[in-house]
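Posting this for the archive.
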Amino acid sequence: DAPDLPRDQQDARFIVFINTHQGTVPPWNLAEMSTLRINGGSPQNATGWTVLYRDGQQHHNQGMLTFPAVDDGQPADLEITMQLAGLGRRTFQWNLPVPQLPE
């Protein structure tokens, strides 16, 4: 079965890797635990979480976290916050546009 892709191709999609070597990764729905702020504005709730890979020992998960569209043609400061049950808050920040890699 192929995972469901976001319905709106303009949605912002982030590939998330979750790994542990102590215990197992819970079957979290990261859409219920994540918000996105653009340029310090109001947090936007995630619109979807699709598991792309989960190993049999439950040590490694990979998924696609989806938010409403981000205008990637304009400079922006992005911040995703995840409130993970039992682990506290994790925050990830970066800027758009993403610089081109040297050739």
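The two ends are 37 Å apart (CA to CA). The chain is about 0% helix and 45% strand.
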